[in-house]
Amino acid sequence: MIGGARRLFLVTHVNPDGDAVGSTAALAHLASGRGVEAVCYCPDAVPAAFRFLAGAELFTRDTGALDDSDAVVVIDCSDPWRLGPENNRILARRERVVLIDHHTDVAPFGGVNIVDPTAAASGVLVYELLGRLGWPVDVPAAEGLYAAIDTDTGSFRYPNTDARCLRITAELIERGLKTDRVAHRIYESHRFERHILLGLALKTLERELDGRLVLVSVTLEMLSQTGADVEDTDDIVDYARGIEGVEVGAFLREDPGGLVKLSLRSKGGVAVNELARLIGGGGHPCAAGARFEGTLAEARRWVIETVRSALDGGPEG
Predict the structure, then answer these.
(1) Count of alpha carbons within 13 angstroms of residue 21, beta-carbon side
(2) Ranges for the DDH domain (predicted)?
(3) In a domain, 199, yes or no
(4) pLDDT band at residue 317 under the 50/70/90 scheme
């Protein structure tokens, strides 16, 4: 379906991460180079850290090109609701939908489903698909695929890192990929305001459950005080996860409208995607997220009690 299309409409999930952007951008970039009219849709903006990727310029928040597309390619999305407010329009073309996903909780909803929960990232599946299509991967596409794999494996620190993704990474390097260039753009190009915010956030670090859970928080006041924005909070959770003795790190960000953004990270002993699903979130066993309806204090209590339950034998709804 993809190989014969002249107009592709590529879609990824709300709050796109490196795998979502990198995989989608790489496929769109290569399709465009073959004369295909490719449009990438996401209801949220591409994070600044990934805007350097070839194909990122093809992202839009407009679904106008959907109806004229020959195929709809949904990437890195385990559940239709994560497609955002236009999910029903997208699903109305189900017979033309190609789903590419690697989440463990995926419920295949495409006319064609390329689903493999053993893959470290959706970028792995896109790379393998490109091989079957006979589309050579150039350096710009390699950067997107590497960004996808690198970010979803926690820079190859998470348990989902396997020989398959490392083999693909080696092949991307053989094609000319410079991993240091990608790492610099993603991890070493933060705004100054982000570091000021980080200093305030680290003052909120607190240990619970005998040090097995560490929480770190950002309030709306902190964002206003520092001039930082929500993108500047990405990866703050890793400072909680990286403490000795921690099994789960939790980041809580106060958002407008009585919402709290939760980011959960595990060292492997707790499947945090199962915890996130309790309140409508999702993700991976070692990295997941959700939105909590309530105050920061209420979200903190929910995280502590839910992680306590998981450590004691299993989360309770």
Answers:
(1) 27
(2) 9-149
(3) yes
(4) very low
Output the pTM of the full model.
0.90
> Could you tell me the two tokens for 69?
């597309």
b/e burial code for range 15-45 (CB count within 10 A of at least 16 → b): bbbbbbbbbbbbbbbbbbbeebbbbbbbbee
Same structural domain for residues 104 and 218?
A: no
Q: How many domains does the chain have?
A: 2
- Nearest Cα neighbor of 249 from 295, 216, 282 is 216
Q: How many residues are present in the chain?
A: 317
Whether residues 70 and 116 fall in one domain: yes
The predicted-structure confidence for 215-255, as pLDDT tens digits, reads as follows 999 999 999 999 999 999 999 999 999 999 999 999 999 99
> DSSP letters along 158-202, please?
STT--HHHHHHHHHHHHTT--HHHHHHHHHS---HHHHHHHHHHH
Cβ pair 69, 62 in contact under 8 A: no
Domain carrying residue 54: 7-187
Closest CA to 36 of 75, 80, 68: 68
Examine the domain organization and report whether 12 and 137 are in the same domain: yes
- Provide the CATH number for the domain around residue 231: 3.10.310.30
